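The passage that follows is intended for readers who have already worked through the single-chain material. We present the inputs for a multi-component assembly, then the predicted structure in tokenized form, and finally a short commentary. You are encouraged to pause after the input and sketch how you expect the pieces to fit together before reading on.
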Amino acid sequence: MPALPLEEAGKYVAGAYVVFVLLLVVYLGIMAAKLARISRELEELAEVAERQGQAREEASSKQQAAEPAGVEEARA
Amino acid sequence: MKTPSLRTLAIVCAALIGAGFALVFFYAPNEADQGFIQKIFYLHVPLAIVALVGFVVAALHAIRHLRSGDPVHDARAYVSIHTSVIFGVAVLITGAIWAKASWGRWWVWDEPTLVSFLIVFLLYSTYYPLRYAIPDRERQARYASVFAITAGAFVPLNFMAVRAAESLVHPRTFATADGGLPPTMWLTFGICFAGIAALWIVLVRFELTAKRTSAQISRLRRAIDGSPSPGGVGARIAPGAAGTPG
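Having made your guess, compare it with the prediction:
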């Protein structure tokens, strides 16, 4: 086949390069969604870790508060 | 040798692809026979070469996985195949566009180069159903590695068979008797090829980093509340895919 005129060939060339860019954008979009999910999971874990830390602190302060009363009861 | 960071690689990749595409449209001359439509060559051919080399790289990782049993190599083989299949989609679409412009048809079934690439692409497309049809993760990784090695060996054999076959319409660009490409086209092709190869490496490392992070989150979750794996992105690959990215 003879070479296509520039106007017609330009459409095909632009189409090929646009397809490449679109595929790249779709791939990056999927990866961005995955990263967002990872970020959400990390936030959840940070909250769980903070709650566990608070619960441990509360438990240890209750234990310290209960200890003198226990000692007095033992003396009585 | 120190491996460059993902950020450095991404910057190099963007610079190479930007420079390559600028050379394609502002420096490389129009080809005498095909004219402006030949500009697709600088995108289509590097994508095809990088996709095929990526399949061979996956086979090498799979060999290392079978030798060592280290799930990191399995994850690398998986991600290499995944990225190469995506590149394969781009090769088939850009090739079809070029075929329509040059030959007047979207696809030519008599052409060994086209059909052989389609066979390789379809072969690797069966990797996912094969892999996820096996529930046991260790067996899954082992069978996937055997598949990657067998299919990886098929790629160079296929390439040699196609080179040996008589081409009907698909051009032979490199190592032709009449000298092949002029230096300006070689330079443009070289930069584009380096850019596409860098893109493949960046995407592979990007995905491996995401999988590694996801696997570490699963470990952390189990350590914190003893709950089972949340099934994040890294959890679909064998446990322990949290190795350093390739």
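Commentary: The mean pLDDT of chain B is 85. The two ends of chain B are 13 Å apart (CA to CA). How closely did your sketch match?
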